[in-house]
Structure formats: structure tokens, C-alpha cells
Amino acid sequence: MREFGYRRVHDVPGALALLGADPDARCLGGGTNLVDLMKAGVERPGLLIDVRELPLDRIAATDGGGLRIGATVTNSDLAAHPEVRRRYPALAQAVLAGASGQLRNMATVGGNLLQRTRCGYFTDPAKPCNKRIPGSGCPALEGEHHNHAILGASEHCVAVHPSDMGVALAAFDAVVSYETVDGPGELPLAEFYLPVGETPHLETALPPGALITGVTLPPAPVAAHSRYRKVRERASYAFAIGSIAAALDVRDGVIRDVRLAFGAVASRPWRAREAERVLTGGPASAEAFAAAADAELAAAEALPHNGYKVTLMRNLVIAMLSELAETDPAELNGGTAR
Amino acid sequence: MAPSTSSAITLNINGEKHALPVDHRTTLLDALREHLDLTGTKKGCDHGQCGACTVLLDGRRAVSCLQLAVAAEGREITTIEGVADGEQLHPVQQAFLDLDGYQCGYCTPGQICSAIAVIEEHAAGWPSAVTDDVRPEAGPPPLTAEEIRERMSGNLCRCGAYVSIVQAVAQAAEAEQKTKEAAA
């Protein structure tokens, strides 16, 4: 591991001053991904700015029924928060589906958004990787790629984003807030992650020297009737091979509102807007769910060993929406059970 | 000017203060084992994937292999050496002994630290990935074997003593519940 300096900051201006002064600096939250990548030699910061004690650890209700989540809120506190569980149950479920109890206690919301792919070529400095060394090539295309992207990838990179939390945030139109020395800014999650294209090493639209301060979830009544499901190669404590966050509002047999986002299929949490468009205003039937899944997955481009993901995601869409349609929303939304 | 790559820090471990110089690259796990002779905490994978190095930070379980020692300054660190009350074993330690919740014992300190936290997290009403209804109105889920297995999934046991580990956690949780009820 490269040697590095360490500074602990207690206010946002202090963090921004350090970040702005040293392009070699990185922010340290829980460290569950960064420290591991530093051990592997993939990340080589010259300075770590410990942001864990910044006053960004609160979850607050916003006007109209949304939530504002601070960047240093831990995954555990996010998943345990009563309003998260009540208003956005799929978000609590997504966070709980990720990592282990130990890691969720350490990991932060800001760090979760900025975590790197677990592609085995990216995490091994002995291998070429366009994300690590632009122009060096992508061995995954012809190598180990059974858990790589089927949507939105390019010939330069087929890695997937590993976050579970991000999938639920994508479904609920989350907005990322940040600060720079020039002032604050916001990025909708849909614009937060850059398209892969020819530049897989450029992952987010954050300006240089920016510090994520929080995530805002706008009010979304449909989110109260939502679920997250994660498919993986063992029952717990593993990254997804495919996951889905879904929310559904059906009245008199007609879909009034629907949210769908996929995980582990693209370089970013994948909001399934085409499927949502097909479903909205139509019947809540298994046939309609299948047609919506097919519409979304028409753009899928499978590699030789990850074609199963197309089938998996289709089945997940149908299963999740059927489950939500069959559950009595009055019971789920009313908050009166037990 | 390049920043200093080492610091003199003080760690608060099991209620005692320990002053030590550390290279910033030192993990809490290595500080405990190599600098402070607290070898109860074990190194397994060193990548946060096995849970053998689990300790409690401010009462919450964490993997010490991904925790930089310098970043642990100011926090209350509890290791397996600090969970008993003098000669009186912690109820979770006693349950692991009573029910043979181990074979070779290498993962056991991490299992026990993790289990202590699991029982507290459950008592605080935290849901898990196998909790069917996470809404607060649904109330806390009963600590079934399925819930214990999910909540303990960050601790691997290569001997495969899981059956007894689940029983030990359940017994300790039940004992603590009874103690609480008796006190109430």
C-alpha cells in the first residue's frame, strides 16, 4: 500500500479546503471499499480526508413526505430508520440485502454511491482494465464475465455497479447534493453516473473537488408499496447477479404509478423507464408485466456467458410486479397492520 | 509539502487507553495483534469477507481489517478480551461453550463479538434481509433461526459449526430477554 497522510475533518468547509488543495486526496467514510482497494493497490491516494465525523449524519423528513439523508448516515442507520421503512420500504430492504451487519455499520451513504465495481479485472492491478488504466483493454469481454453488464455497456467496459442501495434510490428519483469551494450543487441520480462509452474511467458527473453531502428522496406515495429482491449465488452476504426495486400503485385494475429499477445489469443502477412507460395506464396483468419486461430488455446485449441475466430480469419483473399487485395496497399503505 | 504518513494516537480499548505510534496504513486489526498483543481478534481474509476480525466500535460490530487504526482514535473499541465481566463470561460466550458453537475456534472471537451485537440490534428493532415486512408498524420480527442465520452471515466458519452457532445465539438471546423481563 502506498503511504498516505490522514486528516480528520469536522466541518464541510474544512473538508473542501483539503480536497481542493490536493488532487491526490480521497475522502474516507467507512472505508469498506476504499481501504480494501488501497490494500490491493487499485486506489493509491496520497491523503485520506476522514469525513465520518462531519455533521451529515441525520435523516430528516422534508415537506410533502420526502426524506433528506445525510452523506455520513451509515447503511445500518438508513435501513433501521422508521420513516425509510415506512415511506420507502424497498430502500430499507435494498440496504439490508447488501454486505454484512459489520460492513453496514461502517459503510456510509456517500461512500455507497462512490463504491467501485467488483469486476475481477478492475480489482487486480496485474490485469489490463480500461477503467483503471484507460486504453489498456477489457479482458472481461472474452474472459470471466458471467456477472457483467447486459445493458448500457460498451466495448470498452462491461463492469456492473455493485450497489443495492443505489437501485432503490434510482427507482425513487433520488437527488444527490454536493458542495464545492464554488458552492453547492445537485445531480439527479439518473445523471449522477456517466454513460460508459469510451471513458469507463470517468464514473460520475461530480465536479473535481466535490464532497457529497446527502441524498434527497422526493415524496413518492407509490414507494410505500414497494419491494426489493436480490438474486445471488448464495443466500446471503454476496453481490447480486440481478436485483430489482419495484413499486406499484393499482386502482380499479389500472396501473396509476409504477417504479422499476434493476441492479447488477449495468455500470449504474438501471432505471427501467421503458417498462414503466409501457405499464402506466394499462392493466396489472402478468401479460402486461411480461410485455413491459420485454420492452425494457429489448436493448439488452448479452455476452457469451451472461445471457441468463436477460431471462432472470424478465422473470424478476413479472414476479415482483405480480407480488405487489396481489398484495392489498390498503393494508400495505395504511400502516395499520399490527 | 507531503503530509506526514504516521501519527501518534491513543486507542481506547476495553476501557483502557493505549498510546502508540502508527503508520497510517496500519489497520485496527494489525494494531491490536501486532502492536498491543491483543491476539484474541483473528485475521482471516483481511478483506472484510470473513468476519474473523469482528470487534465492537462504539458498541457496534465492525470488521477491524478494513478499519484504519488512526481513524479509530476517539472511539470505544471492545475486543473479545473485553466482553467478559471479570471471571464471569458474557452470556454469549457461555452459550457458545454450552452448545459447542465452534470446532477449531479460530472464527469464534469474531462470531461472539458479532452475536453480541446481533442480539442488541434485534432488541433495538432492526429488521434484516429476511424480515418479510420491514415497516415499523409490523413490529420487530421474532429472532428465528432464519433471522439469526441472515444476521450472522458476515461471519464464516470453515469448520461448519453453524448449527451449534445458531443455537448458541438463540440461547443467549433468550437468556438476555429473561434477564430483562426479570429486571422490569
TrEMBL record, chain A:
<feature type="domain" description="FAD-binding PCMH-type">
    <location>
        <begin position="1"/>
        <end position="222"/>
    </location>
</feature>
<dbReference type="GO" id="GO:0016491">
    <property type="term" value="F:oxidoreductase activity"/>
</dbReference>
<keyword id="KW-0560">Oxidoreductase</keyword>
<protein>
    <submittedName>
        <fullName>Molybdopterin dehydrogenase</fullName>
    </submittedName>
</protein>
<dbReference type="InterPro" id="IPR005107">
    <property type="entry name" value="CO_DH_flav_C"/>
</dbReference>
<dbReference type="InterPro" id="IPR051312">
    <property type="entry name" value="Diverse_Substr_Oxidored"/>
</dbReference>
<dbReference type="Pfam" id="PF03450">
    <property type="entry name" value="CO_deh_flav_C"/>
</dbReference>
<dbReference type="InterPro" id="IPR016167">
    <property type="entry name" value="FAD-bd_PCMH_sub1"/>
</dbReference>
<dbReference type="GO" id="GO:0071949">
    <property type="term" value="F:FAD binding"/>
</dbReference>
<dbReference type="InterPro" id="IPR036318">
    <property type="entry name" value="FAD-bd_PCMH-like_sf"/>
</dbReference>
<dbReference type="InterPro" id="IPR016166">
    <property type="entry name" value="FAD-bd_PCMH"/>
</dbReference>
<dbReference type="InterPro" id="IPR036683">
    <property type="entry name" value="CO_DH_flav_C_dom_sf"/>
</dbReference>
<dbReference type="InterPro" id="IPR016169">
    <property type="entry name" value="FAD-bd_PCMH_sub2"/>
</dbReference>
<dbReference type="Pfam" id="PF00941">
    <property type="entry name" value="FAD_binding_5"/>
</dbReference>
<dbReference type="InterPro" id="IPR002346">
    <property type="entry name" value="Mopterin_DH_FAD-bd"/>
</dbReference>
UniProtKB/TrEMBL annotation, chain B:
<dbReference type="InterPro" id="IPR012675">
    <property type="entry name" value="Beta-grasp_dom_sf"/>
</dbReference>
<dbReference type="GO" id="GO:0042597">
    <property type="term" value="C:periplasmic space"/>
</dbReference>
<comment type="function">
    <text>Oxidizes aldehydes to the corresponding carboxylic acids with a preference for aromatic aldehydes. It might play a role in the detoxification of aldehydes to avoid cell damage.</text>
</comment>
<keyword id="KW-0732">Signal</keyword>
<dbReference type="GO" id="GO:0047770">
    <property type="term" value="F:carboxylate reductase activity"/>
</dbReference>
<dbReference type="InterPro" id="IPR052914">
    <property type="entry name" value="Aldehyde_Oxdr_Iron-Sulfur"/>
</dbReference>
<dbReference type="Pfam" id="PF01799">
    <property type="entry name" value="Fer2_2"/>
</dbReference>
<keyword id="KW-0479">Metal-binding</keyword>
<keyword id="KW-0001">2Fe-2S</keyword>
<dbReference type="InterPro" id="IPR001041">
    <property type="entry name" value="2Fe-2S_ferredoxin-type"/>
</dbReference>
<dbReference type="InterPro" id="IPR036010">
    <property type="entry name" value="2Fe-2S_ferredoxin-like_sf"/>
</dbReference>
<keyword id="KW-0574">Periplasm</keyword>
<keyword id="KW-0408">Iron</keyword>
<comment type="pathway">
    <text>Alkaloid degradation; nicotine degradation.</text>
</comment>
<dbReference type="InterPro" id="IPR006058">
    <property type="entry name" value="2Fe2S_fd_BS"/>
</dbReference>
<dbReference type="InterPro" id="IPR002888">
    <property type="entry name" value="2Fe-2S-bd"/>
</dbReference>
<dbReference type="GO" id="GO:0046872">
    <property type="term" value="F:metal ion binding"/>
</dbReference>
<feature type="domain" description="2Fe-2S ferredoxin-type">
    <location>
        <begin position="7"/>
        <end position="83"/>
    </location>
</feature>
<keyword id="KW-0560">Oxidoreductase</keyword>
<keyword id="KW-0411">Iron-sulfur</keyword>
<dbReference type="InterPro" id="IPR036884">
    <property type="entry name" value="2Fe-2S-bd_dom_sf"/>
</dbReference>
<comment type="subunit">
    <text>Heterotrimer composed of PaoA, PaoB and PaoC.</text>
</comment>
